[in-house]
Amino acid sequence: MMKYQYCGHSGIRLPMLSLGLWHNFGSVDPYDTARDMILRAFDAGICHFDLANNYGPEPGSAETNFGRIVREQLAGHRDEIFISTKAGHAMWPGVYGDGSSRKSLMASCDQSLKRMGLEYVDVFYSHRYDGITPIEETMQALVDIVRSGKALYAGISKYPADLQQRCYDYLRSHDVPCLLSQYPANMFKRASIAPTPDSNLAVAARNGSGFICFSPLAQGLLTPKYQKGIPQHSRAARSTGFLRLDQVTEERIEAARQLMGIAEERGQTLPQMALAWLLNDARVTSVIIGTSSVEQLDDNLQALRNPAFCEEELRRIDRILGKEGIAM
Predict the structure, then answer these.
(1) Domains of the chain, start order
(2) 219 and 185 Cβ atoms separated by less than 8 Å
(3) pTM attached to this predicted model
(4) Residue 106 carries which DSSP code?
(5) Which residue blocks in the chain are alpha helix, DSSP H?
(6) How do residues 7-19 score in pLDDT, each as one tens digit?
């Protein structure tokens, strides 16, 4: 049974597991599989679906497919669904199709709503800090998107901790507090959730923002996928992608093997334990899972059956993760 947590200092509750449409929901993927995964997720209590304008491939096609599924299968359930989308990475040709300017965010929001056939999204994120646009310009765009009714809440993704605080301050001063902060986090990538005062998780918690993690399985490294080498069609084998060949190291493969042993003792698979480990910190509102099949989705859902860790398990996990060459 799905469990829900309040999102920061708000009345919004999110499922502990959310479904991300980054991969496997685009125009190059089987539509029927995407539809079945979304419907299965909804039936299992996953009411939060995470998108971005450039998700696909082709860019935008995940939103188009999602909109079709909502229209054809879930039209009567819109008020039961929490939908997020984002803008900030390269999306269309020309000088305004990338970055965090007001023009780019405003246009992206309108395009996303049109692709999905929605009047509003529940959260609209600034997908990244582009290194150029003033924080005030980007945050004011979020404020105006919320005030226009095109989004109910504002969110930020992947902002450095010092700029993260400035985002919160600006949004709060304009009566549009940041509902959600989204960051990559997993057992091999712990910086954003480190137990330090300046980690992204700590800054979010102090400011009453919910915190949602993506890439919880380290692009497949925290699965059995790479235990016997690099599969031909895996993400690491692709010339483009977010998992590079040089990240699939012997040290990490061995760490995953050792973690798998702890997971088996807990009656879990390694992916299930990796998801539960992230949720073990009560400040984490939700974890975004990415799936390629209904079966994989069902397997991930089992993480919620055994979410608790004893102190000895956590110490053993920390010893494994603290070894040289593990952190990403």
Answers:
(1) 4-226+276-304 (3.20.20.100)
(2) no
(3) 0.94
(4) H
(5) 31-43, 61-73, 102-116, 135-147, 161-173, 200-206, 250-265, 270-279, 294-301, 311-321
(6) 999 999 999 999 9
